[in-house]
């Protein structure tokens, strides 16, 4: 692994550690993000920003990577760190949801499956990018990563329709 990848791995790891620490702070009620920032709760703003970023940035970045391969490095970093920051926002929403009191506990159905898909996306993306397990073929992670991305897009549609009480 080269110096750039080492630095990028440390940055990615730092983002994940901060994400986990912030989630724990929310779950343990040290920090609350369920207050309103008109007209919605802050945790909902977080999840919408993170989801919209992933939903639109990922296909745009993938398309530009193919059309302008000379910009691959910058686009790859944008993909990795942008998605990790979006994952952080989504994780904070998830932590806020699961830390709600019993009388206001949400129906986690599609949200739980969606978050699992996100965790799989992040995990396979990191394993693929930084080749942390060199004995596993790169194509295996790519297959799982693309599959998790497809699941993310399908589940987010169902989750939104469920949240809007359409289904």
Strand-pairing-aware structural class? mainly alpha
The coarse silhouette is globular
Quantity of strands, as a count: 2
Sheet with the most strands: spatial strand order: 1-2
Q: Report the mean per-residue pLDDT as an integer.
A: 91
Query: Which regions contain 5 or more consecutive residues with pLDDT less than 50?
Result: none
SSE succession: HEEHHHH
Number of helices: 5
Terminal CA distance reads 47 Å
Major sheet attributes: 2 strands, antiparallel
The tally of structural domains comes to: 1
How much of the polypeptide forms β-strand, as a percent range?
A: under 5%
The proportion of residues forming helix, as a percent range, comes to over 70%
Radius of gyration using CA atoms only: 17 Å
Secondary-structure blueprint:
Blueprint: H1 3-27, E1 36-37, E2 40-41, H2 42-67, H3 72-98, H4 109-130, H5 138-163
Antiparallel strand pairs: 1-2
Helix pairs in contact: 1-3, 2-3, 3-4, 4-5
Question: Summary?
Answer:
The chain has 167 residues and is mainly alpha-helical. It has one domain. The chain is 75% helix and 2% strand.
Describe it.
This protein is an all-alpha fold and 167 residues long. The chain has one domain. It contains five helices and two strands; from the N terminus they run αββαααα. Strands 1-2 form a two-stranded antiparallel ribbon. β1 and β2 (40-41) form a beta hairpin. α1 (3-27) packs parallel to α3 (72-98), α2 (42-67) runs antiparallel to α3 and α4 (109-130) packs antiparallel against α5. The chain is globular. The N and C termini lie far apart (47 Å). The relative contact order is 0.12. The model has no long low-confidence stretch (mean pLDDT 91).
